C-alpha cells in the first residue's frame, strides 16, 4: 500500500502567530485551519483558564496540628501568574464528603498563603483538601485541586489490629473468612474480651454479632457476603463491651476485590478499532477498591479463536496489538479461580473512519505520527485537520486530504512545551474524529540547589539553608518558592504517592480520574520502563480541561464570574418581585466603621467594592424606593453558594490497621517524644482539665466565654440528631422553650419566663434597622431556615447569671436580665443570619478573608540545652521564599530537640512559565 511522507504537502503551522479574527464571530465552518486555530487560541486568551496547585507542609497530620499551605494560581495556557482571580477558596471535607472548614483567601500575583487549625472538629480519619476560584467552577470538576490526607489521633493506650480477609465461593454464596488480632500498643494481646462486631455498608448495618477474643487476641469469623453489598463502603467495626471502656470503637474498611467485579476497559489508540488497520489497544483493569489490579488473558474472535494475548503491567495498565477485521466482534477472556472465565467485550469494529497512531519513543527528539483511513474515505478525498494542543492552546496544525493517506509525519518535539500534548483529528466542520495523548519532556524545569551551612547539626542548632535557582542553561531565576522541613521520625514522606508542582501542573491535572502514585512518573524521561508506563497512562486516562469547541460558538455565558476582589452585591425588588431601578442603597458597618451608598441599575442590581472583610464585620444594608421609604422594597443578596463536589474515591486505612514494623517504630518514637514533652511542660494536665471541665463550641462568639452556658449542644450531639430544622432541634433539646401569646396579642418565643433572643455567629437576628417584621416571625424565619447539618453548636443562656452580659450587650442596660434568654448558634459558615429576602433592610455577614499567620519559628540562644520541650513535626515552614536577581535566597531556622534526619522540600515558580521542586536532607545529632 502506498505511504506518503506528508511534510512537503501538509500546510504546517508552527502557530507562533495570531490574526485579528474575533472568536465570537466564528459561528460557521471556516475555510482552512488558520482561522480555526486563531479562534481557539484567541478564545483561550480571552477566558484565561486557571490552574491551581497547593503545597502543604506535610502529607498527613495529627489531631491539633495546623495545616500550613501556599497556593500557586496559574494561567493554565502560560503557567504564568493568573490575573483573572483575586479570591481563592480552600476547604476540607471528611470521608463522608461533609465540608468541615471553608476559608477565603486573597490572591496577589497568583500567590496565596494560609493555614487551617485541625482542632476538635476533626475526628480521626481521611480528609480531602480542595482549592478553587469561582472562575474555575465553570470547568469540569477534574480541574479542581484536590489532595487527600489522613488525620491521626494516636495515644499510648490505642489498640493495634492485624487484619486479614479472604473471599471464597460456597455454593451460590460468597463467604468472607475474617481474622482480626487485637493487641494493645505495647503488643500484648487483648485477651478474652467480649466485643460487638458489625458489618456495615455505608449507614446500613448488614450483620451484627457478639464475639470474643481468644488468649492471643484473635477473632475469627465467617459470614456470607450479602449480594447487594457495596464493596466501596464496606467496613467492619468492633466495639469493646467491657464496662468502663468508654465503648472503645475501631472501624476497619473491609477491602473486597472480587475478580468477577473487576472493571476492565479497552481503549484503542486514536479512539476506534478500524477494519483492516493494525491498532494498538490499551487497557486498564480496576478492582472494586478503585485501584489498578493485575489481569491477564486472551483476545478471541467470534469463533472463539485466540488471536492475541495481554497482561497488565504497572497499576493494571498495558497494551497489545490487534488487526481487527470487518464484521468481526472481539472479546477478552480472563481466567479466574476454579477455571472460571469472565469475558469482556472490546469496542465494535468500525467499517469506516480514520486512524491516528503516535510513536513517542524514549529519548527521541521527534515523535512520529501515522494517519490512515478506510478505503471509502480515501476515495472521497475529504479535508481533515490534525492539531496538537498543549497547555490549553493549539501549538501545531496541519490540513490534509484523505487522498494522501496513508501518510507518515515526523514532528520535532520542540514545537510543544513540556507536558501533556493532545493530538486531535477534526473534520471540515471541526468536529473531533480521533484523539491521542502523549507526553513531551524537555527537562526544562527550574534547577533548585540546596546548600546547608554545615554538613550536620546538633539539637537546637542554627541552620542557614542556601537556595539557588537557575534555568536549564544555568541562568539565575527570580521567583517565589515555599519550603517545608519535617522530622523524619514524625513525618513519613512517600515520594511515590506525592504530587509536586511539576507533576501536577504538567501531567496529573491534565488527566481525568485518579492517577495512582503520581510521584512514580516524576522522572519518567530517565527510564525507558517508566516512559512506557507513562504512555500507557496517557492511553487510558481522559483529557481534563476547557472545551476548545466553545471558541466556535457565537458567545459563551459563564455561570460563575471571576472575583478579582471582595464585593457585596445584590438586587432590590418590589412586592411583585420586579427590579427597582435607581433605588438608593446604603451600606453601614460599625466594626470596622464603613458608610457607603450607591444606586441600583435598570435590573435593580447594586454592588459595593473595596470591601474589608475581617472576621468580625457585620454589614447593615438599607434600600429605599423613589419616595424615600423602605416598606415596599426588598433586598436579595448574592450570597456565596459553595459548590458540591463528589466524595473522594480513596478508602482510608486507619493507622492502627496492619501497621508495619518501621511505621510502628516511628510512631512509638513520636509518642515517646510527645509524652516526654508533655511531662516536662505539663501540657497533658492542662488539656485534661480543659476537656473534661465543659463542652466547648469551637468558633463560638459566646460573650460569657467558652462553655459558659446553661445548655450546650456540641458537634457530637449534632451528628446524632440527623437533618432537622434549628427550631425542631431547640424544641427537642431545650426544656422550657415554648411559644406564648403576649398581652397585646402578639406571639413570642420564651424559655422559662424569659423572652427568647436568637444570636447567630455573634449577630442578633433582631438587630435589623427599621424592620417591619415582628420579632416572632423574624425568629421563626431563621429557625426554619437552618438545619442541624449547618450548625456546629448551640449554647443556651437561661434567664439568670449567664444572660447578664447578653442583655447588656444586645438590649438596654435597664432591661432585666432575668426576663431574657439567649440562644447562641455557631454555624459552620460563620456568616451570621442570612435572610433570603429582607424588607427594605438586610443584615449581611459575608465570608471573611483568612489572613496568613506566621509560622512559629523559635529562636534559641547559643549553646541552649535541649530539654524535650521543643518537639515539633514540622521543623520549619516558609511560604514566601523570594530569590533575588542572582537566583539566591537564604532560609534560617533552628533544629528541635529531636535527633535524626529532617526532610526538606522546596517548590515554586518564576511566575513566567517555569516550575521546579527539590528535596533534600539534614542530619541532626544528639551529641555533635
Structural commentary:
The chain has 928 residues and is mainly beta. Among the domains are: 568-637; 662-690, no CATH class; 696-762 and 791-830, Ferric Hydroxamate Uptake Protein, Chain A, domain 1. It is built from ten helices and 56 strands. It is globular, with a radius of gyration of 32 Å. Mean pLDDT is 85; it is low at 1-30 and 684-693.
Task: Break the fold down into its secondary structure elements and pairings.
Layout (H helix, E strand, L loop, with lengths): L3 E2 L28 H14 L2 E7 L4 E2 L3 E10 L4 E2 L5 E8 L4 E8 L4 E7 L7 E8 L12 E8 L6 E12 L2 E12 L9 E8 L2 E9 L5 E7 L9 E7 L8 E5 L9 E6 L4 E2 L4 E8 L9 E5 L5 E6 L5 E6 L8 E5 L5 E5 L3 E2 L3 E6 L6 E8 L1 H6 L2 E8 L2 E9 L5 E6 L6 E8 L5 E9 L6 E6 L4 E2 L3 E9 L9 E8 L13 H6 L21 H13 L27 E7 L9 E6 L4 E6 L5 E4 L10 E6 L8 E5 L23 H21 L1 H11 L17 E3 L1 H7 L4 H8 L3 E5 L5 E5 L2 E7 L2 E2 L10 H11 L5 E7 L6 H7 L9 E8 L10 E2 L1 E4 L29 E9 L5 E7 L5 E10 L5 E11 L3
Parallel strand pairs: 1-31, 3-10, 19-26, 35-56, 47-50
Antiparallel strand pairs: 2-4, 4-5, 4-8, 6-7, 6-9, 9-10, 11-12, 12-15, 13-14, 13-16, 16-17, 18-20, 20-23, 21-22, 21-24, 24-25, 27-28, 28-31, 29-30, 29-32, 32-33, 34-36, 36-54, 37-53, 37-55, 38-41, 38-43, 39-40, 39-42, 42-52, 43-51, 44-49, 45-46, 46-47, 47-48, 49-50, 55-56
Amino acid at each position: 500500500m502506498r505511504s506518503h511522507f506528508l511534510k512537503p504537502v501538509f500546510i504546517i503551522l508552527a502557530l507562533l502567530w495570531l490574526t485579528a479574527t474575533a472568536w465570537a464571530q466564528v459561528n460557521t465552518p471556516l475555510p482552512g485551519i488558520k482561522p480555526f486555530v486563531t479562534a481557539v487560541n484567541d478564545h483561550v486568551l480571552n477566558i484565561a483558564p486557571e490552574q491551581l496547585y497547593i503545597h502543604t507542609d506535610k502529607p498527613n497530620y495529627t489531631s491539633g496540628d495546623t495545616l500550613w499551605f501556599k497556593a500557586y494560581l496559574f494561567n493554565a495556557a502560560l503557567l504564568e501568574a493568573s490575573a483573572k482571580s483575586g479570591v481563592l477558596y480552600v476547604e476540607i471535607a471528611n470521608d463522608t464528603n461533609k465540608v468541615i472548614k471553608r476559608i477565603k483567601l486573597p490572591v496577589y500575583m497568583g500567590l496565596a498563603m494560609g493555614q487551617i487549625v485541625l482542632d476538635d472538629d476533626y475526628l480521626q480519619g481521611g480528609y480531602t483538601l480542595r482549592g478553587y476560584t469561582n472562575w474555575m467552577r465553570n470547568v469540569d470538576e477534574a480541574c479542581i485541586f484536590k489532595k487527600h490526607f489522613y488525620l491521626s489521633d494516636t495515644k499510648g493506650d490505642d489498640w493495634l489490629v492485624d487484619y486479614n480477609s479472604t473471599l471464597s465461593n460456597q455454593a451460590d454464596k460468597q463467604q468472607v473468612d475474617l481474622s482480626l488480632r487485637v493487641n494493645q500498643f505495647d503488643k500484648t494481646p487483648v485477651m478474652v474480651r467480649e466485643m460487638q462486631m458489625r458489618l456495615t455498608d455505608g449507614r446500613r448495618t448488614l450483620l451484627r454479632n457478639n464475639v470474643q477474643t481468644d488468649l492471643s487476641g484473635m477473632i475469627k469469623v465467617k459470614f456470607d457476603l450479602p449480594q447487594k453489598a457495596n464493596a466501596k463502603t464496606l467496613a467492619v467495626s468492633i466495639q469493646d463491651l467491657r464496662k468502663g471502656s468508654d465503648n472503645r470503637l475501631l472501624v476497619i474498611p473491609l477491602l473486597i476485590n472480587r475478580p468477577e467485579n473487576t472493571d476492565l476497559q479497552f481503549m484503542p489508540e486514536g479512539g476506534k478499532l478500524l477494519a483492516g488497520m493494525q491498532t494498538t489497544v490499551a487497557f486498564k483493569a480496576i478492582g472494586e477498591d478503585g485501584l489498578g489490579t493485575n489481569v491477564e488473558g486472551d483476545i478471541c474472535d467470534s469463533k472463539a479463536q485466540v488471536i492475541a494475548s495481554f497482561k497488565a503491567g504497572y497499576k493494571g495498565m498495558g497494551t497489545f496489538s490487534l488487526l481487527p477485521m470487518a464484521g468481526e466482534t472481539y472479546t477478552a477472556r480472563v481466567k479466574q479461580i476454579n477455571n472460571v472465565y469472565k469475558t469482556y467485550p472490546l469496542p465494535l469494529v468500525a467499517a469506516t473512519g480514520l486512524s491516528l497512531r503516535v510513536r513517542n519513543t524514549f529519548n527521541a527528539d521527534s515523535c512520529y505520527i501515522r494517519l490512515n483511513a478506510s478505503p471509502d474515505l480515501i476515495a472521497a478525498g475529504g479535508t481533515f485537520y490534525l492539531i496538537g494542543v498543549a497547555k490549553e492552546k493549539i501549538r501545531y496544525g496541519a490540513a490534509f486530504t484523505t487522498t494522501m493517506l496513508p501518510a507518515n509525519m515526523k514532528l520535532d518535539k520542540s514545537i510543544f512545551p513540556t507536558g501533556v500534548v493532545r493530538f486531535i483529528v477534526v473534520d471540515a466542520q471541526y468536529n473531533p474524529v480521533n484523539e491521542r495523548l502523549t507526553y513531551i519532556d524537555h527537562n526544562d524545569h527550574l534547577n533548585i540547589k540546596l546548600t546547608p551551612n554545615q554538613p550536620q547539626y546538633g539539637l537546637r542548632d542554627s541552620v542557614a539553608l542556601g537556595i539557588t535557582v537557575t534555568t536549564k542553561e544555568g541562568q539565575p531565576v527570580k521567583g517565589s518558592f515555599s519550603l517545608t522541613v519535617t522530622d523524619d521520625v514524625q513525618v513519613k514522606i512517600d515520594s511515590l504517592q506525592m504530587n509536586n508542582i511539576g507533576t501536577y501542573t504538567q501531567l496529573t491535572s491534565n488527566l481525568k480520574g485518579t492517577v495512582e502514585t503520581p510521584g512514580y512518573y516524576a522522572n519518567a524521561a530517565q527510564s525507558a520502563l517508566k516512559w512506557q508506563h507513562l504512555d500507557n497512562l496517557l492511553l487510558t486516562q481522559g483529557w481534563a480541561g476547557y472545551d476548545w469547541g466553545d471558541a466556535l460558538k457565537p458567545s459563551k455565558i459563564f455561570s460563575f464570574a471571576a472575583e478579582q476582589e471582595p464585593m457585596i452585591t445584590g438586587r432590590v425588588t418590589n412586592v411583585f418581585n420586579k427590579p427597582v431601578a435607581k433605588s438608593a442603597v446604603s451600606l453601614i458597618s460599625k466594626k470596622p466603621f464603613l458608610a457607603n451608598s450607591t444606586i441600583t441599575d435598570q435590573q435593580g442590581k447594586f454592588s459595593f467594592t473595596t470591601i474589608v472583610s475581617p472576621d468580625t464585620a457585620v454589614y447593615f444594608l438599607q434600600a429605599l424606593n423613589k419616595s424615600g421609604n423602605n416598606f415596599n422594597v426588598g433586598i436579595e443578596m448574592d450570597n456565596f453558594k459553595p459548590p458540591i463536589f463528589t466524595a473522594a474515591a480513596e478508602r482510608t486505612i486507619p493507622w492502627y490497621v496492619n501497621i508495619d514494623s518501621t511505621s510502628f517504630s516511628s510512631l512509638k518514637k513520636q509518642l515517646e517524644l510527645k509524652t516526654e514533652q508533655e511531662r516536662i511542660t505539663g501540657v497533658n494536665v492542662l488539656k485534661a482539665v480543659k476537656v473534661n471541665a465543659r463542652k466547648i463550641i469551637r468558633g463560638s462568639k459566646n460573650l460569657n466565654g467558652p462553655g459558659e452556658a446553661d445548655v450546650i449542644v456540641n458537634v457530637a450531639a449534632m451528628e446524632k440528631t440527623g437533618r432537622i430544622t434549628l427550631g425542631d432541634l431547640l424544641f427537642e433539646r431545650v426544656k422550657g422553650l415554648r411559644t406564648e401569646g403576649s398581652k397585646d396579642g402578639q406571639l413570642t418565643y420564651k424559655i422559662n419566663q424569659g423572652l427568647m433572643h436568637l444570636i447567630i455567629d455573634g449577630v442578633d437576628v433582631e438587630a435589623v434597622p427599621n424592620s417591619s417584621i415582628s420579632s416572632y416571625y423574624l425568629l421563626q424565619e431563621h429557625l426554619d431556615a437552618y438545619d442541624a447539618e449547618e450548625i456546629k453548636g448551640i449554647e443556651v443562656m437561661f434567664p439568670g447569671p449567664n444572660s447578664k452580659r447578653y442583655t447588656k450587650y444586645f438590649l438596654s442596660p435597664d432591661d432585666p436580665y432575668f426576663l431574657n434568654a439567649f440562644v447562641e448558634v455557631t454555624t459552620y459558615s460563620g456568616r451570621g443570619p442570612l435572610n433570603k429576602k429582607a424588607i427594605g433592610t438586610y443584615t449581611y455577614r459575608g465570608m471573611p478573608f483568612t489572613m496568613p499567620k506566621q509560622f512559629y519559628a523559635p529562636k534559641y540562644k547559643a549553646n541552649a540545652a535541649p530539654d524535650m520541650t521543643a518537639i515539633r513535626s514540622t521543623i520549619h515552614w516558609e511560604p514566601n521564599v523570594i530569590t533575588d536577581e542572582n537566583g539566591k535566597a537564604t532560609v534560617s531556622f533552628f533544629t528541635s530537640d529531636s535527633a535524626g534526619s529532617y526532610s526538606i522540600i522546596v517548590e515554586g515558580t518564576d511566575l513566567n512559565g517555569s516550575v521546579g521542586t527539590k528535596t533534600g536532607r539534614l542530619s541532626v545529632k544528639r551529641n555533635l
